[in-house]
């Protein structure tokens, strides 16, 4: 019979979103030799959500082998507190955020594109999604905890809300996206950045009334869609002012 071990985990901040109970300390029983990363994910928290882990006042890595009776404090990333880089078990994302979303978050992807962010979605296979996120140095957004536990994944986030507009507000706040926003610079269908085009070049591509009223047009170089600052633009401006200010 294998000897049963007991370890204790205290999760902080939004990491508690992964638990239905209100117990402040999780008691975890296990056998054999296990890393703290394995034990944290066994409790239900994907590694990509963990920023640093403290044991007896000192940081430990994901590779730390859990011993009987140890008490771990597990923290999410803090945007307002500077944490020493050597403490981090997952790196901080640097630069303008890029996103890969699972197939169930299509509306959120379009909203992110509306704000000017690279946001790929449509792939159904978990392995390909993770591979693309790593290749594109992007953050994988999903409501599938299992997907976010894949070992090859570096950056990922579990979207808590189910309504697309609330999801957008959540992601904007989580990654401080307001400072990076460039609304109406990317095609919401193709994820490609717009290019400005002369008015004369779209004469046969837009309704005659639109051509008479508007002088500025942009085009998606991938799908060829032409955009102008009409009622759809006004609706998007209203949406941004209402939800993100």
From TrEMBL:
Transmembrane regions: none
Domain Mut7-C RNAse: 97-239
Coiled-coil region: none
InterPro entries recorded: Mut7-C_RNAse_dom (IPR002782), Ub_Mut7C (IPR027798)
Domain Ubiquitin Mut7-C: from-to ranges: 6-81
UniProt-listed Pfam families: Mut7-C (PF01927), Ub-Mut7C (PF14451)
PANTHER family reported for this sequence: MUT7-C DOMAIN-CONTAINING PROTEIN (PTHR39081), MUT7-C RNASE DOMAIN-CONTAINING PROTEIN (PTHR39081:SF1)
Protein name (database record): Twitching motility protein PilT
Species name: Thermotoga neapolitana (strain ATCC 49049 / DSM 4359 / NBRC 107923 / NS-E)
Lineage, opening ranks: Bacteria, Thermotogati, Thermotogota, Thermotogae, Thermotogales
């Amino acid at each position: 019979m294998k000897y049963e071990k007991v370890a204790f985990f205290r999760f902080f901040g939004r990491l508690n979103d992964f638990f239905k109970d209100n117990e402040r300390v999780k008691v975890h029983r296990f056998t054999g030799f296990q890393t703290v990363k394995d034990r944290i994910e066994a409790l239900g928290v994907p590694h990509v959500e963990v920023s640093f882990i403290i044991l007896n006042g000192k940081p430990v890595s994901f590779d730390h082998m859990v011993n009987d009776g140890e008490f771990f404090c597990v923290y999410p990333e803090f945007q307002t507190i500077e944490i020493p880089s050597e403490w981090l078990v997952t790196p901080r994302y640097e630069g303008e955020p890029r996103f890969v979303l699972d197939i169930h978050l299509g509306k959120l992807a379009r909203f992110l594109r509306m704000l000017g962010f690279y946001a790929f979605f449509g792939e159904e296979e978990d392995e390909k999604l993770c591979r693309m996120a790593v290749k594109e140095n992007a953050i994988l957004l999903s409501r599938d905890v299992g997907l976010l536990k894949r070992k090859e994944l570096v950056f990922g986030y579990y979207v808590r809300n189910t309504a697309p507009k609330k999801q957008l507000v959540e992601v904007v706040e989580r990654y401080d996206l307001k400072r990076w926003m460039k609304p109406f610079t990317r095609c919401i269908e193709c994820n490609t950045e717009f290019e400005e085009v002369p008015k004369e070049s779209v004469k046969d591509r837009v309704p005659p009334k639109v051509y008479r009223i508007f002088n500025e047009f942009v085009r998606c170089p991938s799908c060829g869609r032409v955009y102008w600052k009409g009622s759809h633009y006004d609706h998007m401006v209203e949406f941004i002012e209402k939800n993100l200010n």
